[in-house]
Every structure is written in C-alpha cells, then in structure tokens.
Amino acid sequence: MLEQVIRNLEINAVHAMGNQGILKIKTGFSENKSYIEFSIVDTGHGISNDKRHQIFLPFYTTKEKGKGTGLGMYIVKQIVDQHNGYIILESKIGVGTNVTVGLAVIKDTDN
C-alpha cells in the first residue's frame, strides 16, 4: 500500500515537471520523532491555493482530458489515513510542490 503512495506521488511530480526539472525524495523524522516522514519534492508548475483543497477529492485532476483518472491523490490520502498518518502539501506556482507524508513510528513493546 505504501508503495502505491510513493508511486502516485512520483507520477504526479514527473507529470508536473514535463520533460525537465528536479525530483527529490527526502526521508526523516518529525520534530518530536513520533513520525517517520518522506517527501516528494518537484520543480514543476506548482498548485494554486484555490486548487489545493480539491487535490484529494476523487476524480479531480489538473491534467488534460484523458490524461489522468483523478484518483491518484485520492488514493494517497485514503492509504495515509488508514495508517493514521498525515499529508502536508506545500506548493508555489512556477516553483514546484513538496508533498510530505508522515506515518507514526511503531514503538517496540518488547523493550
């Protein structure tokens, strides 16, 4: 399931950049170390503020007609929610987008 999250985020990032740009994948922990985080960062066209609230809706797409189902980010949100995680979307038009996913660290109960 988490592989699907990464794949969908990568597909969207690559599409946003077209034939050029930089795609970065970052990993780390939240400030309080209770969540492991990974970020997909692109230098694509960015997402406007008025469209950000729609990104995770089913069948919403910014792609041309016939180029996307509008389910990628919806599926990402559903999977992350099932894992009690969070998504932070930061974007600036003409600069790019950073999508960070946080998943709770599983505590070792044997120690």
Structure described in brief:
This protein has 3 helices and 4 strands; from the N terminus they run αββααββ. It is an alpha+beta fold.
Topology at a glance:
Blueprint (H helix, E strand, L loop, with lengths): L1 H16 L5 E7 L5 E8 L6 H4 L19 H11 L3 E7 L3 E9 L7
Antiparallel strand pairs: 1-2, 2-4, 3-4
Task: Describe the protein's architecture and organization.
- The protein has 111 residues and is of the alpha+beta class.
- It has a single domain (1-104), classed as 2-Layer Sandwich (Heat Shock Protein 90).
- Helices cover 28% and strands 28% of the residues.
- Strands 1-2-4-3 form a 4-stranded antiparallel β-sheet, with helices on one face.
- The protein is built from 3 helices and 4 strands; from the N terminus they run H-E-E-H-H-E-E.
Beta-strand percent range: 25-35%
- The average pLDDT score comes to 91
Assembly state (oligomeric): single chain
Strand order of the largest sheet: 1-2-4-3
Instruction: Name the CATH superfamily assignment.
Output: Histidine kinase-like ATPase, C-terminal domain
Output the CATH class name.
Alpha Beta
Please, how many helices?
3
How many domains in all? 1
The CATH architecture: 2-Layer Sandwich
What is the total tally of β strands? 4
CATH fold name, please? Heat Shock Protein 90
Q: Which structural class should the secondary elements be placed in? A: alpha+beta
How widely separated are the two ends?
A: 28 Å
Return residue spans where pLDDT drops below 50 for at least 5 consecutive residues.
Answer: none
Question: How many strands, which pairing sense, and closed or not: the largest β-sheet?
Answer: 4 strands, antiparallel
Helix content: 25-40%
Radius of gyration: 15 Å
Order of helices and strands: HEEHHEE
Give the overall silhouette: globular
